[in-house]
Amino acid sequence: MRTALSGIAVVAAIAAAPLAAGCGTSAPAAQPAISAPATSASATHPYCRGGQLRVGLGPLVSEATQQNTVILDFRNASAVTCDLRGYPGIALSDRVGAVLPFGYHDGGDQMLTSRAPTLVVLAPGAVAYAAVNKNSCVMYAPRSAVGGEVTPPGGSQPLAFELPHYRILGYCRAGDPGHVVDVTPVEPTMRDVLAAF
43 pLDDT band (50/70/90 cuts)? Predict the structure, then answer.
């Protein structure tokens, strides 16, 4: 299913790996490897397939009033460089796995960038980002999205993700401002998915 999803400061501390305390003449602890960031470039590699990627959630962001933003990250878990360009497909689902019939919009809003998609090159271990955002429901929300599937742009294999309890998205019926979910294209950094003021 190919449906479309779519700044302000990211509110989250980046967790640093703790250093092992050495004593006596023991060797110092090895430092964790840091993956290279995704880059925007003109070089072309094969498009990233679902089997090459692992999807996760980015940090919370400082929200505008009544906004609900979720940042998704895509890590290249393969040994091959691949490309991403465009908007991911999203299907948000409720607690029993039923797909919720949100409306979707490729493009930004007051939280998310409205820039056109660019080519993002993902080296092995590198991470790229996309984000979705919606208004809180004005009317009663009978169900909530607690997870779903995301399909990388250019791909056909969806990747499942779960939303923690503090990020669930209320399902708003058609006509409610929160019925439409906006989505960014895949971007090389978290800052790039957010709207610039």
Answer: low
